[in-house]
């Protein structure tokens, strides 16, 4: 089969690889129907994360089950499934409390930009899409987002306390931030404010429900949020970048007693204790427990209530993955879908 | 009148000072019936916080109202009152959301180790004790704790999610940590684990409801908590010290999806973003919104359901405040009550 492998900074190749087989009795193997490139894939692409050895890429996927291990009971060959990028047994105490991203037996999937992929802990990781594989490619694209980018934005919005009556600000206008805008609105937030200074992204933020766009950043950005919220700050802020600047901007934009949900993978972040102590905001973040939200997200997508697949501004055959990486790196594309 | 003034490292004096008068129409002046020395008073005493000018000390107090400003309607001369160390109007949006410690018009009281003190924003800061001044000195001592040390431990326990079925760990065996043990138990926690390696403090922790004492610290301490909780970590952890080590110990002791309530005033803390991201715990802390809890705490104390005044292992006349500071600095006393 063909699959994407990163060899080093800026060096992504599509190569021949072994078709994965069942290894553990809790595995499933799926034929990947759609995959995509994540903002976090750009960290190694840009050399921020160094690779010691070549890495098979991809952790977002929808697909059709082709084979299951002897202990798998929840999915069967032929099922069209969405799975979280985090593997989970969905039965341990941590999973049952809704944090499948930290399953005590879990881990991460890591090679879905390929024609086939092996999904460990299939019963606790995969969710069957009712009605089978949708005919509409846009619905498949939206289901694909549930695997990570939407699920992550959704977690950020939940952690930020998005709900009726609340004003939610979103730091970061990448695909996760845009999905957080969609999520905050879908969760009933009264007002959603997106930080953006790129017209294409701001336009999609508005389409996803943003009521206001703020171009200022840092302290100026936070001051603008306070102006827009009677001097108090937002009730909740989603941080979807992962840098020191974006974290401090998120904290400063939030009112005391409010909530910051941070889902940008932290790079070089070090939070001063006195800033946290004075801010007095609830902070929750980390890898999103997408599995918690999947059934709800699938239902919302199939009913057409949300259309998160709009984040894919480019769709390419798997063979053209290197161009997809370039397009995202150069910010020509918000997010790139790959068709294996 | 007489009052405590800190002149520099290790230099605390009781001096003649002006009796405070009403300045703003929202002020009250109270005769301080009992005050005390806070662990945070030791930061300047030890020279960790440098003083540019001498500082009138004290922020915990119970007392009798002697005078009120023209706009005060909630308290009147003769009332026996407990007040928060944080001043609050108790009407702004932040106060109404339960974060009176960050009142948009608020601040901190700062000179209660004295015979009289002025309380700004009296209506929103003071709570009248039903039935007037208690005859029992131990009840007065317990009411005094509600002003900060108990209220702060209580906030830590609430932020840590203390409730039935939960295991709560407490980092720090100072008076705040001990009050957090009491609070976690009073809030219904199934199991409370206190970190301590001092027998007198461990004994009081047990009296306050601790089910287990862990002497290990740092990573070893966190590992011990995991051993005691089926490998998962505590559901919630209260951090009541304020150092880098104690914060990291608290985070490491908490299960993913759990809650860390940090109430130790942060000194030299810098939290690595990747540690927070991987831990995936909710973090909330800062100055305690004591006012939120005061009516409930007063009721519990008057009913004899909690006896937090036990943290005062030494009671001294105000004139002997310097000895009180020494006793706390040398850890001969857990907490010192001062009688003006």
Automatic annotation (TrEMBL), chains A, B:
Domain named Enoyl reductase (ER): residues: 8-338
The keyword DNA repair is annotated on this UniProt entry: no
Cofactor: Zn(2+)
Similarity field: Belongs to the zinc-containing alcohol dehydrogenase family.
Superkingdom, taxonomy of origin: Bacteria
Keywords tagged on the record: Metal-binding, Oxidoreductase, Zinc
GO molecular function: oxidoreductase activity; zinc ion binding
Xref: InterPro entries: ADH-like_C (IPR013149), ADH-like_N (IPR013154), ADH_Zn_CS (IPR002328), D-isomer_DH_CS1 (IPR029752), ER (IPR020843), GroES-like_sf (IPR011032), NAD(P)-bd_dom_sf (IPR036291)
Protein name: IMP dehydrogenase
């Amino acid at each position: 089969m063909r699959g994407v492998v990163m060899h080093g900074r800026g060096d992504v190749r599509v190569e021949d690889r072994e078709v994965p087989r069942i290894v553990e009795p809790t595995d499933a193997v799926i034929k990947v129907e759609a995959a995509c490139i994540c903002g976090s894939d750009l960290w190694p692409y840009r050399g921020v994360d160094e690779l010691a050895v070549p890495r098979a890429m991809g952790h977002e996927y929808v697909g059709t089950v082709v084979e299951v291990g002897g202990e798998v009971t929840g999915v069967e060959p032929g099922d069209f499934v969405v799975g979280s990028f985090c593997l989970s047994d969905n039965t341990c105490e941590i999973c049952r409390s809704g944090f499948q991203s930290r399953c005590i037996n879990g881990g991460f999937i890591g090679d879905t930009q390929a024609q086939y992929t092996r999904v460990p802990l299939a019963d606790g990781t995969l969710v069957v899409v009712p009605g089978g594989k949708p005919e509409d490619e846009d619905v498949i694209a939206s289901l694909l987002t549930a695997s990570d980018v939407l699920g992550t934005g959704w977690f950020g919005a939940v952690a930020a306390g998005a709900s009726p009556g609340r004003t939610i600000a979103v730091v970061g206008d990448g695909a996760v931030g845009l999905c957080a805008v969609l999520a905050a609105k879908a969760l009933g937030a009264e007002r959603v404010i997106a930080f953006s200074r790129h017209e294409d992204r701001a336009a999609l933020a508005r389409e996803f429900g943003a009521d206001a766009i703020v171009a200022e950043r840092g302290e100026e950005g936070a001051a603008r949020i306070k102006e827009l919220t009677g001097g108090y700050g937002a009730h909740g802020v989603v941080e979807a970048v992962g840098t020191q600047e974006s974290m401090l901007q998120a904290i400063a934009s939030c009112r005391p007693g409010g909530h910051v949900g941070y889902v940008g993978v932290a790079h070089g972040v070090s939070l001063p204790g006195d800033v946290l102590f004075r801010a007095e905001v609830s902070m929750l973040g980390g890898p999103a427990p997408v599995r918690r939200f999947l059934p709800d997200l699938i239902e919302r997508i199939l009913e057409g209530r949300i259309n998160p697949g709009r984040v894919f501004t480019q769709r390419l055959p798997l063979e053209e993955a290197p161009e997809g990486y370039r397009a995202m790196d150069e910010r020509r594309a918000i997010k790139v879908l790959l068709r294996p």
